[in-house]
Amino acid sequence: FLGVMPAYSATDDALTTKLVTFYEHKKDSSVPSHQATVLLFEPSNGTLKAILDGSVITAKRTAAVSAIATKLLMPPFTEVLCILGAGVQAYSHYDIFTELFTFKEVRIWNRTKEKAVKFANSVSGPVQVCSSVQEAVTGADVIVTVTMATTPILFGDWVKPGAHINAVGASRPDWRELDDELMKNCVLFVDSREAALTESGDVILSGAEIFAELGEVVKGTKPALPEKTTVFKSLGMAVEDTVAAKFVYDSWSAGN
């Protein structure tokens, strides 16, 4: 797939387009499934100002948005972080989550155990490698799903009541990471209602009701409800790439 994600932010005086390719690898590959480039333009006249590594920006901004959701929606006492998947997004989520939050235990599961072991050996802190999803998520307070799953791998029966889940994978209308029980018994937050109802198989196929967009919680127009079991379905928005690219460009321009 080739995705084109244009966006303009008047507030940030920023105009960008992200070009992203997605290839579903049948076998493990050294080439990332997602590769991206961000083009930053001068909004007043359309001149191309910069070409940026969109893969890094995508990894960082996706994890940053998950962190915002987690800060708002996670239970008041959190001890266990669980990451399902061991690809690029697993690393970016681990980095920002362990920087912003304090967990007594971090667990990881991956379909290919070798990749999970490699992850555990390459990050800065201790990580427990789990042999099954159920083992990984049992008792976890915060769960991050960053997998290439096309059918549910995370089941409501296994999730601790009051846990918070960031569902980042399954970005097509016919793909799932979470089962119906979890989707229908959680309080569901999304980055974009419009996108979730056309792109997210987890939302579309379960028929789960969207409670709020994350932006509504940030603005204070909808409550966070951290005492409930919450799911943040992340699909990504082009404006996130725009703001991130402008931030990088401004920092570079300032000599930082």
Automatic annotation (TrEMBL):
Gene Ontology annotations of biological process type: thyroid hormone metabolic process
Gene Ontology CC terms, in alphabetical order: cytoplasm
Assigned EC number: 1.5.1.1, 1.5.1.25
Domain of life of the source: Eukaryota
InterPro entries: NAD(P)-bd_dom_sf, ODC_Mu_crystall, ODC_N
Catalytic activity: L-proline + NAD(+) = 1-pyrroline-2-carboxylate + NADH + H(+); L-pipecolate + NADP(+) = Delta(1)-piperideine-2-carboxylate + NADPH + H(+); (S)-cystathionine ketimine + NADPH + 2 H(+) = (3R,5S)-2,3,5,6,7-pentahydro-1,4-thiazepine-3,5-dicarboxylate + NADP(+); L-proline + NADP(+) = 1-pyrroline-2-carboxylate + NADPH + H(+)
Molecular function via GO: pyrroline-2-carboxylate reductase activity; thiomorpholine-carboxylate dehydrogenase activity; thyroid hormone binding
Coiled-coil portions: none
Subunit structure: Homodimer. Binds the thyroid hormone triiodothyronine (T3); T3 binding inhibits enzymatic activity.
Family matches, as PANTHER family: KETIMINE REDUCTASE MU-CRYSTALLIN (PTHR13812:SF19)
Family: Belongs to the ornithine cyclodeaminase/mu-crystallin family.
Name of the protein: Ketimine reductase mu-crystallin
Lineage of the species this protein comes from: Eukaryota, Metazoa, Chordata, Craniata, Vertebrata
Gene name linked to the record: Crym
